[in-house]
Design brief:
single chain, about 250 residues, mainly alpha, Cytochrome Bc1 Complex, Chain D, domain 2
């Protein structure tokens, strides 16, 4: 019996498989003594890719202490901003209320008030000119010194030189007693300062009207347009023989 080549058997088998015949029965199998080749190994399923591991979240950098303090500090409310902006203006206005507004040069009366304080008249006669139990006030100064020139000489000489010249313990047109009081001399006052303080005392405390010949002359000396020597001695000064050289300051 002729032996069929192996490759022909294999081809016949593949053809039957293709048309649905399947493998031949065992009796039609391979010749005795031959072993069918081993079935191909089943394909190995690919290994599933490892699950992706999520990246860790970035750790924020620590905030510096001064930045944290600034962020936590309470902010200025918006309504307070215009208030803060107006503070410098308020401070300027407030300061202006503490000091009198400059008015240029002082009037003769204002200058006389300043001399009344600086020459220590206020210390004895009081700020209101009322005086005290031992110091006369200026309420009756126009009766005591009807002529402003005698009033000026009294202030310049003081009661020491005046009483020594008169030889009495009274002074003025109404013979006012000294009561052992002391009226200091003021030789350092200029004619202008002397007229200013006398004008202040006679107008502010004595009630002298700011008009008339006496007022105009006293005002002229206070403004520097006239000297005490130009005005001359008053009647009471002449009566006790005050020397004319006493009319000059110093």
């Amino acid at each position: 019996m002729t032996e069929i080549p192996e490759h022909l058997l294999k081809r016949s088998k593949e053809r039957r498989s293709a048309i649905g015949g399947g493998d031949s029965p065992a009796e039609e199998g391979a010749p005795a003594g031959e072993v069918d080749p081993a079935p191909a190994a089943a394909p190995v399923a690919p290994v599933a890719a490892a699950a992706a591991v999520p990246e860790p979240a970035p750790v924020p950098e620590p905030v510096r202490p001064e930045v944290a303090a600034a962020l936590s500090r309470r902010k200025i409310p918006y309504w307070a901003i215009p208030v803060l902006a107006a503070l410098p203006l308020w401070a300027y206005v407030y300061q202006a209320t503490l000091e009198p507004a400059p008015t240029g040069e002082l009037t003769p009366l204002d200058a006389g008030r300043a001399v009344y304080v600086s020459a220590a008249c206020q210390g004895c006669h009081q700020a209101n000119g009322a005086g005290s139990a031992s110091v006369p006030g200026f309420e009756g100064v126009l009766e005591t010194w009807p002529d402003y020139r005698d009033h000026m000489m009294w202030v310049r000489l003081g009661n020491g030189a005046w009483l020594e010249q008169s030889g009495e313990q009274v002074y003025g047109a109404n013979d006012t007693p000294t009561n052992n009081g002391t009226m200091p001399a003021h030789p350092a006052l200029s004619d202008q300062e002397l007229a200013e303080v006398v004008l202040y005392e006679r107008v502010e405390f004595g009630g002298m009207e700011e008009s008339g010949e006496e007022y105009e002359q006293l005002l002229a000396i206070a403004e520097g347009d006239l000297t005490f020597a130009d005005a001359g001695l008053g009647p009471q000064s002449e009566a006790i023989s005050i020397a004319e050289d006493q009319l000059a300051a110093g």
